[in-house]
Amino acid sequence: xxxxxxxxxxxxxxxxxxxxxxxxxxxxxxxxxxxxxxxxxxxxxxxxxxxxxxxxxxxxxxxxxxxxxxxxxxxxxxxxxxxxxxxxxxxxxxxxxxxxxxxxxxxxxxxxxxxxxxxxxxxxxxxxxxxxxxxxxxxxxxxxxxxxxxxxxxxxxxxxxxxxxxxxxxxxxxxxxxxxxxxxxxxxxxxxxxxxxxxxxxxxxxxxxxxxxxxxxxxxxxx
Amino acid sequence: xxxxxxxxxxxxxxxxxxxxxxxxxxxxxxxxxxxxxxxxxxxxxxxxxxxxxxxxxxxxxxxxxxxxxxxxxxxxxxxxxxxxxxxxxxxxxxxxxxxxxxxxxxxxxxxxxxxxxxxxxxxxxxxxxxxxxxxxxxxxxxxxxxxxxxxxxxxxxxxxxxxxxxxxxxxxxxxxxxxxxxxxxxxxxxxxxxxxxxxxxxxxxxxxxxxxxxxxxxxxxxxxxxxxxxxxxxxxxxxxxxxxxxxxxxxxxxxxxxxxxxxxxxxxxxxxxxxxxxxxxxxxxxxxxxxx
Amino acid sequence: xxxxxxxxxxxxxxxxxxxxxxxxxxxxxxxxxxxxxxxxxxxxxxxxxxxxxxxxxxxxxxxxxxxxxxxxxxxxxxxxxxxxxxxxxxxxxxxxxxxxxxxxxxxxxxxxxxxxxxxxxxxxxxxxxxxxxxxxxxxxxxxxxxxxxxxxxxxxxxxxxxxxxxxxxxxxxxxxxxxxxxxxxxxxxxxxxxxxxxxxxxxxxxxxxxxxxxxxxxxxxxxxxxxxxxxxxxxxxxxxxxxxxxxxxxxxxxxxxxxxxxxxxxxxxxxxxxxxxxxxxxxxxxxxxxxxxxxxxxxxxxxxxxxxxxxxxxxxxxxxxxxxxxxxxxxxxxxxxxxxxxxxxxxxxxxxxxxxxxxxxxxxxxxxxxxxxxxxxxxxxxxxxxxxxxxxxxxxxxxxxxxxxxxxxxxxx
Lengths: 223, 292, 413
Prior knowledge:
Structural class of chain B: alpha/beta
CATH topology of the largest domain in chain B: Rossmann fold
GO molecular function (chain B): ATP binding; ATP hydrolysis activity
Order of helices and strands of chain B: EEEHEEHEHHHEHEHEEHEEEHEH
Organism (chain B): Desulfobotulus alkaliphilus
Keywords (chain C): Membrane, Transmembrane, Transmembrane helix
Number of strands of chain B: 14
Distance between the termini of chain B: 36 Å
Oligomer: heterotrimer
InterPro entries (chain C): DUF4857
Transmembrane segments (chain C): 6-27, 363-381, 393-410
CATH class of the largest domain in chain B: Alpha Beta
Shape of chain B: globular
């Protein structure tokens, strides 16, 4: 049954996911070309110096990309369910409704995760090509908060789409905007690393938090 | 055993009472039509029955379980038709079949394609590109193929032309004929229900009246006559409903011809050409509930 | 359906995290005036400590250790070694102190200011352990950037060339062997130096080996120039701050985990202890001011500045502690505590890196909590026996007034 559910999610996501995949590839290409250009223009050791000691990040284009992708995927997945409250069709299927919503969210998070892995691998590969491996390694904890911001944005957007009442929608919008903005604090590589465990705790909480909003969606029937 | 059982149902919306103390039941194997004017809470009642709205108080049992908390295994036995024949627009016909088939052990692929193929569309056709009538066939196909014990249909006739409505009725008719199936239906085209339902539920101002169709169609009567100029009639205990076009008056009553005659005489009215006319369900509905 | 109450609590916790990060920061931005720590100096004229204290905005007061205030001109006159240019402009004739005459050149060549911030120490900031080892070539005046960076591995010192992104085998071998010859045991546990060419000359790096021995590594004419220092291996070194200064009196300051401060003397590598009583290296900044007559060590913490003046032999002469408050007026602080029983933030003045900070409120927070509970009882309490509200009360006990928001917006109905 979950295969069937995943098929449904994939049907909604496929074009958006493909587009996002291409955009993420494009971002990686931009990073590659940016580094190539600056290394051609300046001395390699100066570029290294900027990257190591001045904390210049050459993968800046990835900063807000997971966040935007999260919002787009959430919309792609849940707009068709919310318009005309079509999700009632799925909610009536013989499966526990929390489990159903949970699986739908997992499907979305999985696609977001694939793009995150793509970002991590391509960034590391590009950095390995031009820099010592320490820089590629340092990109991981630097990218993780941005990726987590994508998960938070995704779950926040689902919250907003499912929530039937406007005041609560505004409240959640503020809460999730605040939460995702935390992920962009500081600058340079590894700034947020000591707080990573805290950040990684936010996503499971947000995932759990959506379930009750799902119930409200289900029961917040018309009139 | 009742397929649907509603006891002392109360519901309020934005502080306004929709019903107070509503009770009725739909026995298994019956086909029950819910009738009521717009704004009387038909959709709300259907939403409660479908489990998408939690009533403020009272019990609402569907196949013996609380409607707002149906177990997955019970949901398997209930087929829902959402208002507007909602379907996943991003799927094709074939994808719709594949998607739903996995959930129902009794899924009958042939029933689905039998209904859908009548339209002559290819399996790769997107739901989004269908007319409302075509979509209704797909949705009907889904519901029929899952072979439910209870069907709850929310305004199935919405957006359908006469042909598709007939088709829908044909299918429902065959479904019910198979036996032990219960249908709970609302429609804004009252006339169609006459061919389908055996039980009527009238919802009016928070109260519900339940009657077998046959009883209603025989005990409720339609009379027509021509009145003298300037005579004005009003509803009362005998005259349940009336329509007046010029001097031509149509009356609805539970009483017999003789009762009516003496009642009119008592009101000082001399009806010309008083006769009982054949009454359709729609006539009866108007006669009972009024036009607005 | 026990999952849905859990789900609501998860949403409430998220809301609390968001609220207690954002709103206190907003409050501070609007109402709290953070002022800089005061600047303390030792006046060779008065033989007393003087200081400049910020009142917020661009207002300062100038005073001495006994609390006597003066204007800025008088303050600067008390510190002729610091404000020598102004001293020259205002006063005719040379500076004469303690029977000695100081001209501009003497002052410039015998002055040094060396500051170490806690946030720049090892472990308080993210740092990839790759460093440029500048080549000392007496024939070249400026310091050109080397084409490579070095790292320490388990087995040796490696140089990676930036043009090829490959290990320079020959150079790596030369340095590794030279290090081994001097008794270095790999890997390195601390690498300290100034990876910048914005300095008058280069003194390479001080590197601690796995046994605790400290080595001074330089690159001269592309050859290793390595010296083992006599710095004891059991000192518990936290970090070494190197400062290339023309005075060439010391290489830098060694900081121990336990809060010891030592100068590393030029050439001899002898350790000169500095008066570091009460120094917490993780939460205090260090400043050493050197002028022709005195040395002043200034330790700046969260709420006090502690300064000790020493003679040129680093013998303490006198010390002074100046308490201060960074948050200024008490009212804003109390209101903040009333509103927020705790605050969350990622930034710390002592770290160049995020660290999750949970700051507790004060006695005033209880007021806010009690008010929150009263409001809850009046407006939000769920019907039914009291125990059904226990969770909510516990929640408010921790979160106070702003905990009402999640309770208001994240509810069953």
